[in-house]
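Closing statement on the flavin-adenine dinucleotide sub-project.
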Amino acid sequence: MKPRTNVDLRTLNTFGVAVLAAQLVDLEFEAQLPDIRQWLAGRTAFILGGGSNLLLTRDLTEPVIRVCLRGRSYQIDSSIDAVRLVVGAGESWHELVTWSLEMGFQGLENLALIPGTVGAAPIQNIGAYGAELADVFESVRVFDLAHGTWLTLGPQDCQFSYRDSIFKQTRAAHWLICSVTLRLRYRAHGNDGLKLDYGDLRSQVQSIRDMKGLGLSTEGIRPKEVAEAVIAIRTSRLPDPARLGNAGSFFANPIISREEALALQARFPGLPAYPVASSGPSGQLGPTMKLPAAWLIERAGWKGVRRGDAGVHADHALVLVNHGSASGQQIRRLAEEIQRDIHKLFGLALAIEPRVV
Ligand SMILES: Cc1cc2nc3c(=O)[nH]c(=O)nc-3n(C[C@H](O)[C@H](O)[C@H](O)COP(=O)(O)OP(=O)(O)OC[C@H]3O[C@@H](n4cnc5c(N)ncnc54)[C@H](O)[C@@H]3O)c2cc1C
């Protein structure tokens, strides 16, 4: 195990912010963990995946562990039409989605094209297009760097909710996720279990089918076609971090009571509000409503605004971007300005989605 020193993190975070890591080690095999603990000597490590949910505002003086654990295996239980996947934390999430669809498995189609690693997916219970990790999650294997012990956590232990989990709490500061176990459908059965009712997903599936000469019917859709539609929508709307630095949605959608939502809608006609479903396979609707942060930010006039090289994307108000050489601090200051404004205008607290360091 050889830590590298003064590592430039510009290409290791999707904002493309230029900061240094004083010491960084690539974790490629679990067998390295005892040596890594010795190297840490009680210090708290910074755990880095694909860097797609981070805003780095300073050089990292703490030791950095970059998770590169690879490997995936699967076990089919055809009697209950299920397949269990065990995936190394350093695998690419999108490559996993693509592979699972090629294998004919169903369950990850709505989560296509989310950047980052498999090991980071439970941290904020990644979600998109009406699906989230919790829907397919079985367990996670964690190494506690402070105590040198292994833990296996199930869905209840992980306390998943909208963009949140136990892994964001301070008690998890020393937990390194080494592998994730997911449970998918082994074979698709018609449209059973497909989630097509989010935004314009259904019409996108229809237009792709129509272009292929399959007509406008949404009968017998394959999970792969849903992923194709998700990818088409995402690429048309979200900036590619390889061209324009960003971390996807920068603010989480505020969740408030139904009464508060109705009161705001009376003041701001046209404000959309959606009932919130609980996390996990049951997905029952609860008493709270989710407001689209993008609508609030656009309404407050922030779309396309720039402060030097830090800016709000011109087409997508929820995405903060680095137009070139913005520092993490400049992006954070812009975010704080937006938060203050939204609070003044709507009385709402906008929470930042990526981890700000
Ligand atoms: C263009 C774009 C679109 C996006 N779209 C979505 C979306 O639709 N839905 C969504 O939910 N997110 C989205 N994101 C955010 C991001 O892709 C996800 O949060 C992703 O899971 C982050 O993975 P990562 O490996 O890059 O994590 P990193 O950014 O490296 O780390 C994120 C956090 O997880 C911790 N962490 C990482 N790996 C481990 C591990 N193995 N063990 C313990 N802790 C770990 C880090 O310490 C950090 O706190 C988007 C980002 C971009 C750039």
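Helices lie at 33-40, 93-102, 155-158, 201-211, 223-237, 258-267, 293-299, 328-346. With this model delivered, the sub-project is considered complete and its resources will be redirected to Aim 3.
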